[in-house]
Structure formats: structure tokens, C-alpha cells
Amino acid sequence: MKFRDYLRSNDEARIEYEELKQKLSVANKNNKQKYTDEKSDFVKFILEKI
Fold first, then answer.
1. What angle do CA 15, 17, 42 make, to 5 degrees?
2. What is the pLDDT along the chain (50 residues), one digit of tens a residue?
3. Among 1, 17, 47, 50, which residue has the least CB neighbours within 10 Å?
């Protein structure tokens, strides 16, 4: 999986993604769909780079 491999080899992106997920999980603790939707932009951004 390209996204996973990219995060494994790029500490800055991995840390940014971890922080985003933590922030979104708190903000959307009762709405998993919104959590997923809001992290999708980051995933798309990374996939466009690789």
C-alpha cells in the first residue's frame, strides 16, 4: 500500500497524520463518518505526491 509505505519512510508526514487523527478522534468521537471524511483530504494530498 503506497500510503502506508510513504508514512513509514517519512517521519514528518507520519507524525502529522498521527496528530490529525488524534485531533479528529476527539472532535468527532460520536461521528465516525465525519472523522473519516475529514482525514480524507490529508490522505488524498499524500497520494497525489507519490
1. 145
2. 899 999 999 999 999 999 999 999 999 999 999 999 999 999 999 999 99
3. 1
What is the model's pTM?
Answer: 0.87
C-alpha pair distances (Å), 30 with each of 14, 19, 26, 50: 25, 19, 9, 32
Cα gap 37→50, rounded to integer Å: 21
- Count of alpha carbons within 13 Å of 50, Cβ hemisphere only? 16
Please give the pLDDT value at position 46: 96
Q: What's the rounded Cα separation, in Å, for the pair 28 and 48?
A: 26
